[in-house]
Design goal:
By secondary structure, the protein is of the alpha/beta class. Helices cover 35% and strands 20% of the residues. The protein folds into three domains: 3-171, 3-Layer(aba) Sandwich (Cytidine Deaminase, domain 2), CATH 3.40.140.20; 176-266 and 327-383, 3-Layer(aba) Sandwich (Cytidine Deaminase, domain 2), CATH 3.40.140.20; 270-317. It is built from 14 helices and 15 strands. It is globular. The model has no long low-confidence stretch (mean pLDDT 95).
Length: 391
């Protein structure tokens, strides 16, 4: 099959719509269940490239959670602490390596991952399917599925859940095309290999990259390769913990991603872990409520009477002073940027979210200012020399 008709394009009024291969070639994907749409396949093909490259670069099973052609989260399989299992709401599940990778990818930014597209580098097993069964998600792409996993996924969303199998041996043409306003654009496919070689040009006084930092910087850079630009990614513990995508200003990317990283870390605060939720609270409502609890608007939003919809007893607020003190313990975070930092203000903001290690292209006329700011905080920064714009 070299053509697949879709329900509609980006929007319902954009018809007809299809994906197809030129020159009679076979599509490298098979739809095993559901009817994926135009945006679903954009997410599927971008996320598949991301997890494939993460697996190739680290040797570990990888997963991504995609929304609107950018990753909400991406991760490789590492051992999850009991705290992370709890904040990802998987402490009651048995997790395989690929299930752990997806739990991390989805758990980093659960608000953004609501209704996501899932990508797995490895075969989807029963453990991953059971995790997915109870989450709100649009579909999944993987190189294969166990029989048990496929049956579980086919029962999801009243039998309409989108399940796509991709041929892992597929290699796209070296030249790619797209049309905008009836005009065809052509370019060489971005087949840049991202690995530790990119981290050798260390320009700061501190020259130390730990093995974990190298891994996390590679995860950040590969994630950025498939994130709508401008983009910045914070990473820790083998996963992206904050992605700032599609901003016109780089400092806004850094702030957006940093705020998400802060929320990820604040969710690990003992007060948040101990929130007395009612047993009948839906998972999305619980996630939203946690973000409200962490915010400065908690007392206004959860006023007397409203809190009873979510909690068995009204919890004490997490004060600004407590949040500040908790975030002051945030450390060991890695940060990647898809283009150079033009000012030191990006480093100042990154420092507030525990960033110690940075990889960025370099090449700004103010590189000296950026390097000096890193040196002020004892950070390690490498210039990769490579821009990673994605549009």
């Amino acid at each position: 099959m070299n053509e697949l008709e879709l329900k509609y394009g980006c929007n319902p009024n954009q018809k007809p719509s299809k994906i197809y291969m030129q020159d009679g070639k076979e599509l490298p994907v098979t739809v095993l269940n559901g009817r994926p749409g135009y945006i679903n396949f954009l997410d599927a093909f971008n996320s598949w490239q991301l997890v494939s490259e993460l697996k190739a670069a680290t040797g570990l099973p990888a997963a991504a959670s995609f929304k609107h052609v950018s990753p909400a989260g991406a991760a490789v399989a590492t051992e999850l602490s009991e705290t992370l299992k709890k904040i990802y709401f998987v402490d009651d599940l048995e997790l395989s390596p690929i299930a752990s990778a997806y739990a991390k990818a989805r758990g980093a930014d659960r608000m953004s991952s609501y209704g996501d597209w899932v990508a797995l580098s490895d075969t989807c097993d029963k453990e991953t399917a059971l995790l997915l069964k109870r989450e709100v998600s649009d579909g999944i792409i993987a190189p294969d599925y166990t029989e048990e996993a496929l049956e579980i996924l086919k029962s999801k969303r009243k039998g309409t859940y989108n399940v796509v199998k991709i041929d892992p041996s597929y290699v796209p043409d070296a030249i790619e095309h797209k049309q905008v306003y009836g005009i065809t654009f052509e370019q060489g496919r971005n087949d840049l290999k991202i690995d530790e070689e990119m981290l050798k040009n260390i320009v700061t006084e501190n020259k130390e990259f730990t093995d974990e930092a190298k891994r996390d910087l590679i995860i950040a850079l590969i994630t950025l390769k498939y994130t709508q630009s401008n983009s910045v990614c914070y990473a820790k513990d083998g996963q992206a913990i904050g992605v700032g995508a599609g901003q016109q200003s780089r400092i806004h990317c850094t702030r957006l991603a940093g705020n998400k990283a802060d929320i990820w870390y604040l969710r690990q605060n003992p007060k948040v872990l101990a929130l007395p939720f009612r047993e009948d609270i839906r998972r999305p409502d619980r996630d939203n409520t946690i973000d409200v609890y962490i915010s400065d608007d908690y007392e206004d939003v959860l006023a007397d009477g409203i809190w009873e919809q979510f909690f068995t007893v009204k919890p004490e607020p997490l004060t600004r002073e407590e949040k500040k003190a908790w975030l002051a313990t945030f450390s060991g975070v890695s940060l990647g940027s898809d283009a150079f930092f033009p000012f030191g203000d990006n480093i100042e903001r990154a420092k507030r979210s525990g960033v110690q290690y940075i990889a960025q292209p370099g090449g700004s006329i103010r590189d000296d200012n950026v390097i000096d700011t890193c040196n002020k905080y004892g950070m390690t920064m490498a210039f990769t020399g490579i821009r990673l714009f994605h549009h």
